[in-house]
What does this fold into?
Amino acid sequence: MIQSSSWARDTREAADSAPPAVGIQPAPELSIIIPTYNERGNIPIVVDRLRASLAGIAWELIVVDDDSPDGTAALVKEIGATDGRVRCIRRLGRRGLSGACLEGMLASQADFAAVMDGDLQHDEGLLRPMLDLLRRDAANLVVGTRYAEGATAHGLSSRRARSSRIATNFASRVIDLRLSDPMSGFFMLRRAIVDRFAEKLSTQGFKILLDIAITAHDDLRIAELPYTFRPRHHGESKFDAGTALEFLGLILAKASNDLISLRFILFCFVGATGIAVHFAVLAGALYAIGLDFIWAQIAATMAAIASNFAINNALTYRDHRLKGWAYLGGMLGFYVISLVGFASNIGVADWLFINAQKWWVAGLAGALIGVVWNYVVASLLIWRTR
Ligand code: GDD
Ligand code: MN
It folds into this structure.
Protein backbone atom coordinates (compact mmCIF):
# COMPACT_ATOMS: atom_id res chain seq x y z
CA MET A 1 0.00 0.00 0.00
CA ILE A 2 2.67 2.43 1.10
CA GLN A 3 4.81 1.36 -1.76
CA SER A 4 2.10 1.93 -4.35
CA SER A 5 1.28 5.43 -3.06
CA SER A 6 4.91 6.46 -3.12
CA TRP A 7 5.09 5.06 -6.62
CA ALA A 8 2.04 7.17 -7.52
CA ARG A 9 3.66 10.27 -6.04
CA ASP A 10 6.87 9.61 -7.96
CA THR A 11 5.05 9.32 -11.25
CA ARG A 12 2.99 12.41 -10.54
CA GLU A 13 6.17 14.33 -9.75
CA ALA A 14 7.83 13.07 -12.88
CA ALA A 15 4.79 14.20 -14.90
CA ASP A 16 4.85 17.65 -13.29
CA SER A 17 8.44 18.33 -14.17
CA ALA A 18 9.28 17.95 -17.89
CA PRO A 19 8.28 14.42 -18.89
CA PRO A 20 11.12 12.36 -20.33
CA ALA A 21 10.73 11.93 -24.06
CA VAL A 22 9.56 8.41 -24.76
CA GLY A 23 8.34 6.83 -27.96
CA ILE A 24 9.40 7.46 -31.50
CA GLN A 25 11.48 10.55 -32.20
CA PRO A 26 12.62 11.44 -35.70
CA ALA A 27 16.27 12.22 -36.32
CA PRO A 28 17.15 15.91 -36.08
CA GLU A 29 17.49 17.95 -39.24
CA LEU A 30 21.08 18.96 -38.56
CA SER A 31 24.03 17.10 -37.02
CA ILE A 32 26.97 19.20 -35.96
CA ILE A 33 30.17 17.20 -35.85
CA ILE A 34 32.98 18.49 -33.67
CA PRO A 35 36.27 16.56 -33.65
CA THR A 36 38.12 17.06 -30.39
CA TYR A 37 41.48 16.42 -28.87
CA ASN A 38 41.97 18.08 -25.48
CA GLU A 39 39.17 20.62 -25.76
CA ARG A 40 37.69 20.21 -22.30
CA GLY A 41 37.92 23.92 -21.52
CA ASN A 42 36.08 24.90 -24.70
CA ILE A 43 33.26 22.36 -24.93
CA PRO A 44 30.78 23.87 -22.43
CA ILE A 45 31.07 27.26 -24.14
CA VAL A 46 30.60 25.70 -27.57
CA VAL A 47 27.45 23.92 -26.41
CA ASP A 48 26.02 27.10 -24.89
CA ARG A 49 26.64 28.99 -28.10
CA LEU A 50 25.05 26.27 -30.22
CA ARG A 51 21.97 26.32 -28.00
CA ALA A 52 21.69 30.06 -28.41
CA SER A 53 22.31 30.34 -32.12
CA LEU A 54 20.29 27.29 -33.21
CA ALA A 55 17.09 27.99 -31.28
CA GLY A 56 14.11 26.65 -33.22
CA ILE A 57 16.20 24.20 -35.29
CA ALA A 58 16.18 20.44 -34.60
CA TRP A 59 19.91 19.85 -34.14
CA GLU A 60 22.27 17.46 -32.41
CA LEU A 61 25.93 17.67 -31.53
CA ILE A 62 28.21 14.71 -32.17
CA VAL A 63 31.59 15.20 -30.54
CA VAL A 64 34.16 12.76 -31.89
CA ASP A 65 36.90 12.53 -29.31
CA ASP A 66 40.14 10.58 -29.72
CA ASP A 67 40.28 9.64 -26.06
CA SER A 68 41.74 13.01 -25.01
CA PRO A 69 43.83 12.75 -21.84
CA ASP A 70 42.10 15.87 -20.46
CA GLY A 71 38.79 13.99 -20.20
CA THR A 72 36.88 15.80 -22.94
CA ALA A 73 34.74 12.71 -23.63
CA ALA A 74 33.57 12.37 -20.03
CA LEU A 75 32.60 16.01 -19.94
CA VAL A 76 30.60 15.73 -23.17
CA LYS A 77 28.72 12.73 -21.78
CA GLU A 78 28.01 14.65 -18.60
CA ILE A 79 26.42 17.42 -20.64
CA GLY A 80 24.62 14.82 -22.76
CA ALA A 81 23.09 13.25 -19.65
CA THR A 82 20.78 16.25 -19.30
CA ASP A 83 20.65 17.29 -22.94
CA GLY A 84 20.18 14.30 -25.22
CA ARG A 85 21.05 16.37 -28.27
CA VAL A 86 24.67 16.19 -27.18
CA ARG A 87 26.45 12.91 -27.88
CA CYS A 88 30.01 11.67 -27.85
CA ILE A 89 31.84 9.10 -29.93
CA ARG A 90 34.93 8.11 -27.99
CA ARG A 91 37.52 6.54 -30.26
CA LEU A 92 40.25 4.39 -28.78
CA GLY A 93 43.76 3.92 -30.15
CA ARG A 94 43.22 6.26 -33.08
CA ARG A 95 44.20 9.80 -33.93
CA GLY A 96 43.23 11.93 -36.88
CA LEU A 97 41.06 14.91 -37.57
CA SER A 98 39.74 13.78 -40.96
CA GLY A 99 38.91 10.29 -39.72
CA ALA A 100 37.10 11.73 -36.71
CA CYS A 101 35.00 14.06 -38.89
CA LEU A 102 34.18 11.23 -41.25
CA GLU A 103 33.13 8.94 -38.44
CA GLY A 104 30.90 11.63 -36.97
CA MET A 105 29.20 12.28 -40.29
CA LEU A 106 28.70 8.56 -40.83
CA ALA A 107 27.01 8.33 -37.43
CA SER A 108 24.53 11.04 -38.40
CA GLN A 109 21.05 10.30 -39.70
CA ALA A 110 20.14 13.91 -40.24
CA ASP A 111 19.48 15.47 -43.65
CA PHE A 112 22.37 17.88 -43.12
CA ALA A 113 25.72 17.61 -41.36
CA ALA A 114 28.14 20.34 -40.37
CA VAL A 115 31.78 20.06 -39.33
CA MET A 116 33.19 22.64 -36.97
CA ASP A 117 36.24 23.04 -34.70
CA GLY A 118 35.80 22.67 -30.97
CA ASP A 119 37.99 25.62 -29.99
CA LEU A 120 35.60 28.49 -30.81
CA GLN A 121 37.62 29.61 -33.84
CA HIS A 122 34.62 29.03 -36.11
CA ASP A 123 31.66 31.38 -35.96
CA GLU A 124 28.60 29.37 -34.92
CA GLY A 125 26.46 32.28 -36.15
CA LEU A 126 27.18 31.03 -39.67
CA LEU A 127 25.38 27.72 -39.13
CA ARG A 128 21.92 29.16 -39.63
CA PRO A 129 22.65 30.87 -42.99
CA MET A 130 24.48 27.70 -44.08
CA LEU A 131 21.42 25.62 -43.28
CA ASP A 132 19.15 28.08 -45.11
CA LEU A 133 21.15 27.65 -48.31
CA LEU A 134 20.94 23.87 -48.05
CA ARG A 135 17.23 23.86 -47.23
CA ARG A 136 16.49 26.00 -50.29
CA ASP A 137 18.71 23.63 -52.25
CA ALA A 138 20.73 26.61 -53.46
CA ALA A 139 23.78 24.41 -52.80
CA ASN A 140 24.58 20.97 -51.43
CA LEU A 141 27.86 22.02 -49.80
CA VAL A 142 28.33 25.32 -47.98
CA VAL A 143 31.82 26.29 -46.88
CA GLY A 144 32.79 28.89 -44.32
CA THR A 145 35.71 30.74 -45.89
CA ARG A 146 38.41 32.88 -44.31
CA TYR A 147 39.62 34.29 -47.60
CA ALA A 148 36.63 35.58 -49.58
CA GLU A 149 35.48 39.19 -49.49
CA GLY A 150 34.05 40.06 -46.10
CA ALA A 151 36.10 37.44 -44.28
CA THR A 152 39.06 37.82 -41.97
CA ALA A 153 41.46 35.39 -40.40
CA HIS A 154 42.70 37.18 -37.29
CA GLY A 155 42.99 33.82 -35.60
CA LEU A 156 45.83 32.72 -37.89
CA SER A 157 49.39 33.66 -37.08
CA SER A 158 51.01 35.50 -39.99
CA ARG A 159 53.23 32.51 -40.70
CA ARG A 160 50.24 30.15 -40.76
CA ALA A 161 48.30 32.61 -42.92
CA ARG A 162 51.15 32.81 -45.41
CA SER A 163 51.66 29.06 -45.71
CA SER A 164 47.91 28.55 -45.89
CA ARG A 165 47.73 30.97 -48.83
CA ILE A 166 50.64 29.31 -50.63
CA ALA A 167 49.06 25.89 -50.18
CA THR A 168 45.71 27.16 -51.47
CA ASN A 169 47.35 28.65 -54.57
CA PHE A 170 49.23 25.46 -55.18
CA ALA A 171 46.10 23.36 -54.78
CA SER A 172 44.03 25.41 -57.19
CA ARG A 173 46.81 25.25 -59.76
CA VAL A 174 47.07 21.47 -59.67
CA ILE A 175 43.37 20.67 -59.52
CA ASP A 176 40.12 22.39 -60.41
CA LEU A 177 38.89 23.37 -56.97
CA ARG A 178 36.29 26.15 -57.00
CA LEU A 179 37.05 26.90 -53.33
CA SER A 180 38.64 30.03 -51.89
CA ASP A 181 39.51 28.21 -48.65
CA PRO A 182 39.98 24.51 -49.44
CA MET A 183 41.57 23.94 -46.04
CA SER A 184 38.62 25.26 -44.14
CA GLY A 185 37.54 23.02 -41.32
CA PHE A 186 34.10 24.63 -41.25
CA PHE A 187 31.38 23.47 -43.64
CA MET A 188 27.88 22.00 -43.92
CA LEU A 189 26.57 19.59 -46.52
CA ARG A 190 23.75 17.28 -47.51
CA ARG A 191 24.71 14.23 -45.49
CA ALA A 192 23.90 11.72 -48.25
CA ILE A 193 26.97 12.95 -50.15
CA VAL A 194 29.25 11.63 -47.44
CA ASP A 195 27.53 8.25 -47.39
CA ARG A 196 27.99 7.96 -51.13
CA PHE A 197 31.71 8.79 -51.17
CA ALA A 198 32.84 7.67 -47.69
CA GLU A 199 34.95 4.74 -48.86
CA LYS A 200 37.05 6.99 -51.06
CA LEU A 201 37.87 9.56 -48.38
CA SER A 202 41.18 9.59 -46.57
CA THR A 203 41.12 9.35 -42.78
CA GLN A 204 44.57 10.89 -42.43
CA GLY A 205 45.40 14.53 -41.91
CA PHE A 206 43.36 17.70 -41.56
CA LYS A 207 42.01 17.99 -45.07
CA ILE A 208 38.57 16.46 -44.96
CA LEU A 209 36.89 19.28 -46.91
CA LEU A 210 39.51 19.29 -49.66
CA ASP A 211 39.14 15.55 -49.96
CA ILE A 212 35.35 15.74 -50.24
CA ALA A 213 35.58 18.60 -52.75
CA ILE A 214 37.90 16.57 -54.98
CA THR A 215 36.24 13.19 -54.57
CA ALA A 216 32.62 14.29 -55.02
CA HIS A 217 33.61 17.02 -57.50
CA ASP A 218 30.99 16.41 -60.19
CA ASP A 219 28.11 16.07 -57.74
CA LEU A 220 28.80 19.24 -55.77
CA ARG A 221 27.07 22.58 -55.93
CA ILE A 222 29.24 24.69 -53.65
CA ALA A 223 28.38 27.95 -51.91
CA GLU A 224 30.82 29.95 -49.79
CA LEU A 225 30.04 32.17 -46.83
CA PRO A 226 32.70 34.48 -45.40
CA TYR A 227 33.29 34.64 -41.67
CA THR A 228 35.84 35.88 -39.19
CA PHE A 229 38.25 33.20 -38.01
CA ARG A 230 38.69 33.89 -34.31
CA PRO A 231 41.70 33.16 -32.13
CA ARG A 232 41.59 29.86 -30.29
CA HIS A 233 39.94 30.07 -26.87
CA HIS A 234 41.49 27.45 -24.56
CA GLY A 235 44.29 24.95 -25.23
CA GLU A 236 46.56 24.70 -28.22
CA SER A 237 46.49 23.87 -31.94
CA LYS A 238 47.37 20.38 -33.15
CA PHE A 239 48.35 21.62 -36.59
CA ASP A 240 52.02 20.91 -37.29
CA ALA A 241 54.50 20.49 -40.13
CA GLY A 242 53.37 16.89 -40.58
CA THR A 243 49.82 18.10 -41.17
CA ALA A 244 50.99 20.52 -43.83
CA LEU A 245 52.95 17.78 -45.55
CA GLU A 246 49.94 15.50 -45.56
CA PHE A 247 48.01 18.23 -47.29
CA LEU A 248 50.55 18.40 -50.12
CA GLY A 249 50.54 14.63 -50.33
CA LEU A 250 46.78 14.57 -50.71
CA ILE A 251 46.93 17.07 -53.60
CA LEU A 252 49.59 15.02 -55.37
CA ALA A 253 47.64 11.82 -54.85
CA LYS A 254 44.48 13.37 -56.25
CA ALA A 255 46.36 15.00 -59.14
CA SER A 256 47.67 11.55 -60.06
CA ASN A 257 44.12 10.15 -59.94
CA ASP A 258 44.86 8.11 -56.81
CA LEU A 259 47.58 6.19 -58.62
CA ILE A 260 49.95 7.19 -55.85
CA SER A 261 48.62 7.05 -52.31
CA LEU A 262 49.32 9.68 -49.71
CA ARG A 263 51.07 7.15 -47.54
CA PHE A 264 53.23 5.96 -50.39
CA ILE A 265 54.29 9.51 -51.20
CA LEU A 266 55.29 10.05 -47.58
CA PHE A 267 57.09 6.70 -47.57
CA CYS A 268 59.14 7.72 -50.64
CA PHE A 269 59.85 11.09 -49.09
CA VAL A 270 61.17 9.38 -45.95
CA GLY A 271 63.21 7.08 -48.18
CA ALA A 272 64.85 10.17 -49.67
CA THR A 273 65.77 11.46 -46.21
CA GLY A 274 67.29 8.01 -45.61
CA ILE A 275 69.67 8.57 -48.51
CA ALA A 276 70.81 11.82 -46.90
CA VAL A 277 71.35 10.07 -43.56
CA HIS A 278 73.24 7.30 -45.32
CA PHE A 279 75.71 9.66 -46.94
CA ALA A 280 76.16 11.76 -43.83
CA VAL A 281 76.98 8.70 -41.72
CA LEU A 282 79.13 7.19 -44.47
CA ALA A 283 81.22 10.33 -44.78
CA GLY A 284 81.48 10.70 -41.01
CA ALA A 285 82.55 7.08 -40.52
CA LEU A 286 85.13 7.26 -43.33
CA TYR A 287 86.70 10.62 -42.59
CA ALA A 288 86.01 11.43 -38.94
CA ILE A 289 86.35 7.92 -37.48
CA GLY A 290 88.50 6.39 -40.21
CA LEU A 291 86.58 3.11 -40.61
CA ASP A 292 87.20 0.81 -43.58
CA PHE A 293 84.75 1.41 -46.39
CA ILE A 294 82.84 -1.83 -45.88
CA TRP A 295 82.25 -1.12 -42.18
CA ALA A 296 81.39 2.50 -42.85
CA GLN A 297 78.90 1.38 -45.49
CA ILE A 298 77.30 -1.12 -43.10
CA ALA A 299 77.04 1.51 -40.35
CA ALA A 300 75.51 3.98 -42.80
CA THR A 301 72.96 1.42 -43.99
CA MET A 302 71.98 0.52 -40.43
CA ALA A 303 71.65 4.19 -39.47
CA ALA A 304 69.58 5.00 -42.55
CA ILE A 305 67.17 2.13 -41.86
CA ALA A 306 66.79 3.15 -38.21
CA SER A 307 66.15 6.75 -39.18
CA ASN A 308 63.66 5.72 -41.87
CA PHE A 309 61.84 3.60 -39.33
CA ALA A 310 61.66 6.40 -36.76
CA ILE A 311 60.43 9.00 -39.25
CA ASN A 312 57.93 6.64 -40.84
CA ASN A 313 56.61 5.77 -37.41
CA ALA A 314 56.14 9.44 -36.54
CA LEU A 315 54.89 10.64 -39.93
CA THR A 316 53.85 8.13 -42.58
CA TYR A 317 52.14 5.85 -40.09
CA ARG A 318 51.38 8.41 -37.39
CA ASP A 319 47.83 7.04 -37.17
CA HIS A 320 49.24 3.56 -36.42
CA ARG A 321 52.22 4.74 -34.39
CA LEU A 322 54.13 2.03 -32.46
CA LYS A 323 55.25 2.62 -28.89
CA GLY A 324 57.30 0.78 -26.24
CA TRP A 325 58.09 -2.85 -27.03
CA ALA A 326 56.07 -2.69 -30.24
CA TYR A 327 58.44 0.08 -31.36
CA LEU A 328 61.48 -2.14 -30.81
CA GLY A 329 59.84 -5.12 -32.47
CA GLY A 330 58.79 -2.95 -35.38
CA MET A 331 62.32 -1.61 -35.76
CA LEU A 332 63.75 -5.16 -35.91
CA GLY A 333 61.11 -6.19 -38.44
CA PHE A 334 61.88 -3.11 -40.49
CA TYR A 335 65.56 -4.09 -40.62
CA VAL A 336 64.69 -7.53 -41.95
CA ILE A 337 62.26 -6.14 -44.52
CA SER A 338 64.66 -3.43 -45.67
CA LEU A 339 67.54 -5.85 -46.10
CA VAL A 340 65.36 -8.18 -48.17
CA GLY A 341 64.18 -5.13 -50.14
CA PHE A 342 67.77 -4.14 -50.68
CA ALA A 343 68.66 -7.63 -51.91
CA SER A 344 65.79 -7.64 -54.42
CA ASN A 345 66.77 -4.14 -55.52
CA ILE A 346 70.28 -5.38 -56.34
CA GLY A 347 68.98 -8.62 -57.87
CA VAL A 348 66.53 -6.93 -60.22
CA ALA A 349 68.96 -4.17 -61.15
CA ASP A 350 71.72 -6.65 -61.88
CA TRP A 351 69.45 -8.85 -64.03
CA LEU A 352 68.13 -5.84 -65.96
CA PHE A 353 71.61 -4.44 -66.44
CA ILE A 354 72.78 -7.70 -67.98
CA ASN A 355 69.65 -8.04 -70.14
CA ALA A 356 68.65 -4.45 -70.98
CA GLN A 357 72.12 -2.90 -70.89
CA LYS A 358 70.80 0.51 -69.80
CA TRP A 359 72.29 1.43 -66.45
CA TRP A 360 69.60 3.97 -65.52
CA VAL A 361 66.69 1.66 -66.40
CA ALA A 362 68.26 -1.05 -64.31
CA GLY A 363 69.02 1.32 -61.44
CA LEU A 364 65.58 2.88 -61.42
CA ALA A 365 63.72 -0.42 -61.65
CA GLY A 366 65.84 -1.87 -58.86
CA ALA A 367 65.20 1.10 -56.57
CA LEU A 368 61.49 1.04 -57.37
CA ILE A 369 61.16 -2.67 -56.64
CA GLY A 370 62.99 -2.09 -53.36
CA VAL A 371 60.82 0.79 -52.20
CA VAL A 372 57.53 -0.83 -53.29
CA TRP A 373 58.50 -4.04 -51.52
CA ASN A 374 59.42 -2.16 -48.33
CA TYR A 375 56.23 -0.15 -48.48
CA VAL A 376 53.83 -3.02 -49.07
CA VAL A 377 55.35 -5.36 -46.53
CA ALA A 378 55.88 -2.71 -43.86
CA SER A 379 52.29 -1.49 -44.26
CA LEU A 380 50.96 -5.02 -43.93
CA LEU A 381 53.22 -6.53 -41.28
CA ILE A 382 54.69 -3.72 -39.21
CA TRP A 383 52.16 -0.93 -39.01
CA ARG A 384 49.25 -3.14 -40.08
CA THR A 385 47.28 -0.50 -41.91
CA ARG A 386 44.84 -3.14 -43.15
N1 GDD B 1 39.24 13.71 -32.82
C1 GDD B 1 40.31 14.47 -33.13
N2 GDD B 1 41.50 13.84 -33.41
N3 GDD B 1 40.22 15.81 -33.15
C2 GDD B 1 41.31 16.53 -33.46
C3 GDD B 1 42.56 15.95 -33.76
C4 GDD B 1 42.64 14.52 -33.73
O1 GDD B 1 43.68 13.92 -33.97
N4 GDD B 1 43.45 16.94 -34.02
C5 GDD B 1 42.76 18.10 -33.89
N5 GDD B 1 41.48 17.86 -33.53
C6 GDD B 1 40.40 18.82 -33.28
C7 GDD B 1 40.75 19.92 -32.31
O2 GDD B 1 40.48 19.52 -30.99
C8 GDD B 1 39.85 21.04 -32.78
O3 GDD B 1 38.55 20.90 -32.29
C9 GDD B 1 39.82 20.85 -34.28
O4 GDD B 1 40.12 19.48 -34.52
C10 GDD B 1 40.81 21.76 -35.03
O5 GDD B 1 42.11 21.50 -34.54
P1 GDD B 1 43.15 22.67 -34.22
O6 GDD B 1 44.34 22.02 -33.63
O7 GDD B 1 42.49 23.77 -33.48
O8 GDD B 1 43.48 23.12 -35.71
P2 GDD B 1 43.87 24.57 -36.21
O9 GDD B 1 42.99 25.62 -35.64
O10 GDD B 1 45.33 24.73 -36.05
O11 GDD B 1 43.52 24.39 -37.77
C11 GDD B 1 42.41 25.03 -38.37
O12 GDD B 1 42.78 25.43 -39.65
C12 GDD B 1 43.07 24.38 -40.55
C13 GDD B 1 43.50 24.93 -41.88
O13 GDD B 1 44.41 25.96 -41.77
C14 GDD B 1 41.22 24.08 -38.42
O14 GDD B 1 40.07 24.82 -38.82
C15 GDD B 1 41.41 22.95 -39.40
O15 GDD B 1 40.16 22.25 -39.53
C16 GDD B 1 41.84 23.53 -40.73
O16 GDD B 1 42.11 22.46 -41.62
MN1 MN C 1 41.91 25.66 -33.99
